[in-house]
Each structure stands twice: as structure tokens, then as C-alpha cells.
Design brief:
about 130 residues; two-stranded antiparallel ribbon; 2 strands; about 60% helix; globular
Amino acid sequence: MYNVRAEHIAEDVSDEVRALILEFLKTYDFPYVTTIRNKTTLRNAFMEYFKDRHNPEWLKQKVYELAKVEGRPNLRGVAAVAWCETNRLHTMGLGRLLLSRGIRKCTTVHSYGRTHMSSVCQANLE
């Protein structure tokens, strides 16, 4: 069993998965992010986030600052970037770890602590 709280991925992720995320981040170009054009600066923020195991508020603030520098301080967009990209990077790191061990199938249970994720969120995530 591998447990990571979705809202605290950088804090909870294992060292092994974190290393794979950091390796992947070296070349990841955030193709779904339109709020921030400077992908190098964004990449560096995410690397620091995972490396130093910051909390999600730290990342949201960092992404907001980057968006503000570009004249696009959209709080809604910032939260989406921080949340979605963190989950995307974690999925990539964990997926690479599982594949390296020959594991081709896994089951994930998405929840918000003690309550299950809404069916709409679950469908969007899947």
C-alpha cells in the first residue's frame, strides 16, 4: 500500500518517487500550462517544491508570483496549475517506479482524507 495525501504530495511522497519526479522535471515542459509562459522558472519552482517538501500553499504562492510577474495574476488559474501539475508529476513518478518493478496494473483510491472524492472530480482525474 502506498499512501499519499493528494493535497500534500510533496510532503508525503517517498524518496524513491521524489527522485523520479525530480528527474522527469528536468525535461518536462508543462504543456498544459498557459498561465505562465516562462517554463524554466516554473520548472525550477516545482523542483524546489518537491526537493524541499514544501506544502501546497507555498507552491500556490510561488506560482502566483510567477503569474504576477507576467502580468497574469489569475488566482483561479494559479490553483489549477499548482494542483493539476503536482498530481500529474506524481503520477508520472509513481508510474515510472511501478514500471521499473514490472508492475503493469495498479488501483488508486482517491479521497479527501476520510471522505471519498466526488464522482465528478473522480471522473475528471481518471
